[in-house]
Each structure stands twice: as structure tokens, then as C-alpha cells.
């Protein structure tokens, strides 16, 4: 289950990064509401990326970095709501 989820999040990250630069709009002089269309693309893409990151932070933060027991089951997942954290050892309290 976690491998499939990790694969989906990797694919989402690649698509988000790959379409950040609107290469298909290069050379376009189209203007909408006084601004070039490529600038609107960036504004919309930043909004979409923010929503995707928020969803990732809520649902999958720490995926792919959890440790496993000898039997292969997940021991602890770090970060995100409802996830357990390793106990602190040493150092001063915050």
C-alpha cells in the first residue's frame, strides 16, 4: 500500500515540477486582463502546487522515510497528523 502511495506522490511531484515552466506558451504574446498568459499560468500553478502540498502534508507527510521491523511492517512514521514520533533523547527541553 505504501509503495503505491509513494509512487503516486512521486508522479505528482514530477508533473508539478515538469509543468512549472510553461514551455508550450513560449513565444505567445497573448494578454489576458493586462498580463501575459504565461504569468497567469504561473499564478495558477503556484496555487495548485500549494493545494497539492497541503494535501500531501495532511495525508502523506513522512511517506518513504519510515523505518521497518524485521518482518517488514511499518514501525513508526514521522510527522503528519496522527503519526507517532520517536521519543526525544538528550539535549535541553525547548
Automatic annotation (TrEMBL):
Residues 73-94 have a biased composition (Basic and acidic residues). Keywords: Membrane, Transmembrane, Transmembrane helix. This is DUF3311 domain-containing protein. Coiled coil: none annotated. InterPro entries: DUF3311 (IPR021741). It comes from Natrinema limicola JCM 13563. The keyword Membrane applies. The chain crosses the membrane at residues 7-26, 38-57. Residues 65-94 are annotated as: Disordered.
Amino acid at each position: 500500500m505504501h509503495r503505491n502511495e509513494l509512487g503516486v506522490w512521486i508522479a505528482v511531484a514530477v508533473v508539478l515540477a515538469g509543468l512549472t515552466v510553461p514551455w508550450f506558451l513560449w513565444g505567445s504574446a497573448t494578454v489576458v486582463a493586462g498580463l501575459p498568459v504565461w504569468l497567469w499560468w504561473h499564478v495558477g500553478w503556484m496555487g495548485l502546487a500549494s493545494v497539492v502540498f497541503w494535501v500531501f502534508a495532511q495525508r502523506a507527510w513522512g511517506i518513504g522515510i519510515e523505518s521497518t521491523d524485521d518482518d517488514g511492517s511499518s514501525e513508526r512514521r514521522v510527522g503528519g497528523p496522527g503519526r507517532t514520533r520517536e521519543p526525544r533523547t538528550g539535549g535541553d527541553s525547548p
